[in-house]
Amino acid sequence: MKKTCLTLITVFMVLSMLSIAAHAGPPTTAEGLWQYKPTIVDVRVAGGNTFLSTTEEGIWTGTFEGDSTEDGTVVIHSLGFWSFNAIVSFQGEVNGKSGTLEMSVVGSRPDVFADWQGKWVILSGTGDLATLHGQGTWWGPGSLGEGHWGDIYYSGNIHFDPE
Prior knowledge:
Blueprint: H1 2-23, E1 28-46, E2 49-62, E3 64-76, E4 82-94, E5 97-109, E6 116-127, E7 132-142, E8 150-160
Antiparallel strand pairs: 1-2, 1-8, 2-3, 3-4, 4-5, 5-6, 6-7, 7-8
């Protein structure tokens, strides 16, 4: 009985994944440069960690062409490594289609001298970008500090749902 139940669950999961793949548009490589300038809104220390609440303005070139704003948190951990998470609000064009996107970005670096590395995922969109999905990685030196422009490179895969 257990074996039959597990087999049915496995078959159902495989069929579900196949139907999702059949409805998605073909994936396209996304890559380019994301330049940003951070502003520190708040600083707090807890448990030896420093928490920086930030806002950022950004300029995107490459697959994503447009501007962004961002609310995020940088944590400087007591052990020396840094982490970052934010929601990016993007407005512009992707492969010739325009609209807005909300993206989640998370990342880290082992110390203040290392480059950042992270991941991005599209959460939602509007306009022509309402059916855009995607995810990928980002990396680079980033900003030297508040009010300084920094460079981050991004790559990944995107696809539009068929209309």
